[in-house]
Amino acid sequence: MVLDRINFLKDEINKYNYQYYVEDNPTIDDYTYDKLFAELKHLEEEHPELKTPDSPTQRVGSVSEKFFPYTHKHRLYSLDNTYNYEDLEIWYKKITEEYGDDVELVCELKIDGLAISLTYENGIFTTGVTRGDGVTGENITPNLKTVRAIPLKLFEDVDIEVRGEIYMPKTSFEKLNKESLEKGEKLFANPRNAAAGSIRQLDSTITAKRDLSIWVYASIMEEISNPPKTHYDSLMYLKKLGFKVNPNIKLCKNVYEAIEYCKEWENKRFNLDYATDGVVIKVNSLAIQNDMGFTARAPKWATAFKFPPEEVVTTLEDIEFGIGKTGAVTPVAILTPVLLAGSTVSRASLHNFDEIRRLDIRKGDKVLIKKAAEIIPKVIKVADTENRISKRHYSVPQKCPVCHSPLEMRDGEVNLYCSNPDCPAINKARLEFWVSKDAMDIDSVGPSIIQQLYDKKLVQSPVDFYKLTIADLMTLNLIKEKSAANIYNAIQGSKNRPLKRLITALIIKNVGKETADILANEYGTLENLMNASEADLAAINGIGEKMGKDIYEFFHNEKNIKMLNDLKAQGVEPPAVELPKSSLFKGKTLVITGTLSNMTRDEANELIKKYGGKASSSVSKNTSYLVVGLNPGSKFDKAQKLGVIILTEDEFLEMIKSEEKFPVVPD
Ligand SMILES: [Zn+2]
To answer: What is the CATH number of domain 499-569?
Structure first.
């Protein structure tokens, strides 16, 4: 009896939620809704054993100590992107060469929000996770439950994982900022930051108060009878399950229709109540998607067209000088705040002193600034000099703005550098880089914490982070026991980050995250890398003599060796990287064409890499082998013309099998 009533109430409320938050079409008034909700809550309080996770009363939120990392079952990839239509045509041409002329595409608006993944078991929402780095995210299930547009229960009892973008409507963002301004709180720069800040609240009752919504755009279905065969149909199916799917999707016959769509939305997007920064274009056929597979970071069957950056004119109020982790002094334009591409901008990059000279920019000038997504805006040119205050050119500073040491030039570089190796500004920038996303990724340690830790002499070098105690952290301004414990745990939890991150964090001259990745895969452990000879380093593809020397010198500098040993003593030790299983394909480049029968193209490419080879997508004179599946494309003809060795799928597998019998130890 009670159970029936509870089930009835749950279904009714879920239905009204769906009508209100997904279909944007409410059918009952708030009063009636609130009455149903109160009755359900009352019954559940009397019969707690009947409370279930899909009950609408479970959307209220709770307080967590911290977010737990969650390894995605299926990786969330990034998208390759472009700003021009020609690239889209080239991308499409490659596809049609392989799969025939009539490859359909689906266009979707690229939502400028926060990517997340939602898992449903038997139609019940169980787990919600942030994208994170695509491999590991954070479990934020309680927060996502408060987002009314996310169904707690689907219309069918399926097992499914869906991906979507959490966003805050522009109108809600403006309202939130207005309220924050009145309360004297910090303002969010744009709707995206507001959405991110709201969804990552440890107290999800705060999330519940923020007006967040979602667009769902992809799914992974397992064991479903009669699964959709196209991306478009899968979106329609998601809609049928009760998900909020953006209505502005379009099925296009070819790339020209897709380009029309991009052109149309370049202007129309400003009328939407959510921010979009481009169009995502995907191959419609799931069979072709599956066959095309992925590169290391992105699907080959999808690409993003980014809308051109916006430009705006504002006034230059001043020029300040900042110091980066390399010690380079960079000029920053201080601007009269202005709205640009949805954010308020008050600073812009001026790159270096040559740029100031080239622009002949002076206080009071009207300047044109431009912003590409995610990138700090930059000054393009002086638009008007009528209100110019300064009569003289900006002069290049002679001293470091922070430690007042003389600045020096370096061979072949336009930048000026602080000459003091112990400049506090450089040290702080290096510490900030150590905790940054591409390096050790300790996101609860922000610039203001580093500033305090440095000034209190608690942290002078990265090693000191790992020596911090909770008591040390509690001496910081506004840090109470709970957040001190969070910070402490975040630092301790970063000790076993992958080797490539540690190498990036070390700030070796000219070694960015890509090069760090190459080094990690080449050497597997820090010890091996430290013991590498200069000649060995220089011989690595993508390193070369100059960088090889820099890397060698870094690892043979006494101060650096001491730091690395100290880090190790503190327990900072990345797990060893799995090196290629054998050198069967070492130094060889392999290309695959046609449909393979024993594995997907991705799996084949993984095998190639595992056996030390390089997997490429196009045939050239440097191709060692072409592996041919069913219905090979134009690559087959090209390979024949170039005299590339051609292998059938069976021959390819045979090579690997015989290798398994007589494994070759990598040299
Ligand atoms: Zn300095």
So the answer is: 1.10.150.20
